[in-house]
Amino acid sequence: MNGGSLGLRTGSYGLLQNINGAIAGGGISKSLSNVRKSSTKMLSVIREKERPLPNAWYRYIGCRKFSMLLLIAFALLVFALGSFVVNKDSTSPNVLQRIGTLGIVPYVNGGHHEASQILGEKDKKKDENRFQIPAFKGASVLPFRHPCVNFTFPPPPPPTHRRLGPRPCPVCYLPVDQAIASMPSSSSASPVLHNLTYVLNENPIKSEPHGGSDFGGYPSLKQRNDSFDIKESMAVHCGFIKGSKPGHGTGFDFDESDLAELQQFHDIIVASAIFGKYDVIQQPQNISEEAKKNIPFYMFVDEETEAFMKNRSILSSSKRVGLWRIVVIHNVPYSDARRNGKVPKLLLHRIFPNVRYSIWIDGKLQLVVDPYQVLERFLWRQNANFAISRHYRRFDVFVEAEANKAAGKYDNSSIDEQVDFYKKEGLTPYSEAKLPITSDVPEGCVLIKEHIPITNLFTCLWFNEVDRFTSRDQLSFAIVRDKIMTKVDWSINMFLDCERRNFVIQSYHRDLLEQMPPPVPAVVRRPPALPNTRGKTPGKRIPRRGRDRRSGSSCHRKAAASNRDRNFF
Fold it and tell me: Which InterPro entries does the protein's record reference (predicted)?
């Protein structure tokens, strides 16, 4: 049916009764003539009514093409309105509410797992107002609408193209200049706790059977419990128990030149550590000139790692390796290299007393996003003062403990003792009752922190658990966080592990890298060479004589055999 037929049907609606009456009376030809007459009369009436209009206008109204154009215009209008409604829904503030973690988890990890049963709903609650951008606390520039408000995760790949295991997912970062402008000009408010000091004791004595160390001061269980009673002013154990200031006769000591530098003021620092020559230094990438100028990168190493680096000609007298400023540690407090690494990881606020923000990354990680962009995305945009990624698969401490035992991460009896202690204190398996808390198990290789009293207290008490029990900090994270959150209005931004993998790249430990076989060079298979026929007459053979003839025949046979071999392989 074409446009003209639509126009005829529209003009014949008033004639249906006349046609039906004519058929009922049996005079079809007469009725048709009456129809024509009535139609003529109606058209004349219409023309009388339309006389005030311009001649061009009513001439176009009766045109079939013009009617089609009107219909097409109307259809386009409806389509545009529909697209606007769909686009409005697709750019809703709650990105994760639409696709849910149930959709993200297969995309990130290659398949559904135990976490996906709970994370779908809890992410909806946590991120309900994720992109309703509030004013930054004390920021010099207050954006009206954040550029990342319309950011959405791409759909997960089809099941046949999924790669097993954790992998990165897209993250929306501000440009570096906008991220710098978003940095708050003043510190965040610390709830309840305003003044935090640290216990000093020249002669710590172990009075209870639980673990501990001279470096940590052996706090008693009563002192441990009192440290969770948040007050306006507090004094707690926080490592460096001996000496007048951290790094000077306290264990975990620095050179005098380094000690003076660590006391300087910085808005932001990036820190990492390698102990026991356990890792290979990874150079940061994609770092802006502003960050290279204003943000120092500190790498803590022990004497063993220092000697290894010097033997490999990696470290010179400048104490610099690429962007990293190397700080050598003397008199390490523990025999376990991994436990020594927990000192700078959790106690950066004690080593750098005059720093506002810090980003900690484990020694095996490579930072590939500018620090300003990382801080804007995970702290300033969220109005948070502590951020850490959650484990990509496990979110329950008891499940994490069993996984550590199965992988031989630590002595099994020590893990059982720690978990049983927490169970008696009231730690329960993770469930939806903990919402909006999204996980009890972090992926603790990256810490993003604002140095204020409440976050400093959190990392102090977290370190005390690592000092008292096992060095597996994933096991003690939840108990410390939950005890503080029951006392004050404070929370931690636990973001997706795939987002963490977007700004850091994980490498293997050095011992594994040395055990790996060298890569096999790729074998380039070349096609057989075409015979050279230049200068020869097609179809005509040039005769040879004597020795030349026999030599040529031999070469021809070898070349033919070689070509057959190539074709076979």
Answer: TOD1_MUCI70 (IPR006852), TOD1_MUCI70_glycTrfase_dom (IPR048354)
Q: Is 265 exposed, middle or buried (0-12, 13-18, 19+ CB in 10 A)?
A: exposed
pLDDT digits (tens, 9 = 90+) for 264-319: 999 999 999 999 987 889 999 999 999 999 999 999 999 999 999 999 888 888 89
Give alpha helix (H) positions in 312-368: 337-346, 348-351
**pLDDT beyond 50 at 10:** no
For tokens 């009617």, name the residue. 67
β-pairing verdict for 504-506 and 386-390 = unpaired
Contact 321, 274 (CB under 8 A): no
Residue-wise pLDDT for 234-268, tens only, equals 999 999 999 889 999 999 999 999 999 999 999 99
Q: Rounded to whole angstroms, how far apart are CA atoms 247 and 59?
A: 95
Going by C-beta distance under 8 Å and a sequence separation of 6 or more, which residues neighbour residue 163?
110
301/144 Cα distance (integer angstroms): 45
Give the torsion sign (CA, 35, 41, 44, 45): negative
Q: Which residues of 146-179 are buried (b: 16+ CB within 10 A; e: fewer)?
A: bebbeeebeebeeeeebeeebbbbebbbbebebb
> How far is it, in rounded angstroms, from Cα 396 to Cα 291?
37
Separation CA 364–CA 297 (nearest Å): 15
How far from the centroid of its chain's Cα atoms is residue 31's Cα? 79
